[in-house]
């Protein structure tokens, strides 16, 4: 009798355990589902499921990557290249497809002085709102143009506005390099303010976002470089910083933030 009772008690306890576990499971599932529901309203917000990849850079290394977006520009990119060459330092230029024709000499000069060319898409569209085929076209136009004009094969992609949802990352299937310091040059429009913003946030491994299409960005670049050189920083391209030639960087997002 006692034995049968024990068996019943065990069975009841088991039932209670299963019920409690089911309820907890349902509550959890419900929360996850709600989150997906909220975020999936915007294709841009899908990136919340793809955390950016941060590489630990040794503080003593004191390396930074200068990056310039939205060029090349016949006036300002040339001036920036002149300056970089005079200081014997390198940077990365995320170029737009629409600015490539007529600027082969600038692209070749970038490669010649050891700078890196990155891909910023054809015409700065928000990729999240484009169909797969169009995203591929945006990226491959720049890849092909630069390869034909210079022989350089682009590795790094910086999506316009730094968009990085699952679909974009899968389609591009290359390293996507964003930034850790936004100079906000196009908002601040003043070389001292731009330089101060960047220099206040600087750290080893910083990726600095500037645009080689404004005079104030060129002037700010000089202030930033002078200060960083005085502080003992070295300038590297994004491929040098993250070893992007390695195939296992495909599909990763770098931003060091
Ligand atoms: Ni841009």
How would you briefly describe this protein structure?
With 257 residues, the chain is of the alpha/beta class. It contains 9 helices and 8 strands. Helix 2 packs parallel to helix 8, helix 4 runs parallel beside helix 5 and helix 7 packs across helix 8.
Explain how this protein is built.
The chain is an alpha/beta fold and 257 residues long. Helix content is 47%, strand content 11%. The chain has 9 helices and 8 strands. Strands 1, 2, 3, 5, 6 and 7 form a 6-stranded parallel sheet that branches. Strands 4-8 form a two-stranded parallel ribbon. Strand 2, helix 3 and strand 3 form a beta-alpha-beta unit. Helix 7 packs across helix 8. About 11% of the residues have low confidence. Nickel (II) ion binds next to loops.
Q: Using the CA coordinates, give the radius of gyration.
A: 25 Å
| Tertiary shape | globular
How far apart the termini lie comes to 67 Å
Q: SSE string, helix = H, strand = E? A: HEHEHEHHEEHHEHEHE
Number of DSSP helical runs: 9
Structural class: alpha/beta
Outline the low-pLDDT stretches.
Answer: 22-49
Query: Which ligands, by name, code or SMILES, are bound?
Result: nickel (II) ion
Strand content: 5-15%
User: How confident overall, as mean pLDDT?
Assistant: 86
- Report on the biggest sheet: 6 strands, parallel
Keywords:
six-stranded parallel sheet; globular; alpha/beta; binds nickel (II) ion; 11% strand; 257 residues; single chain
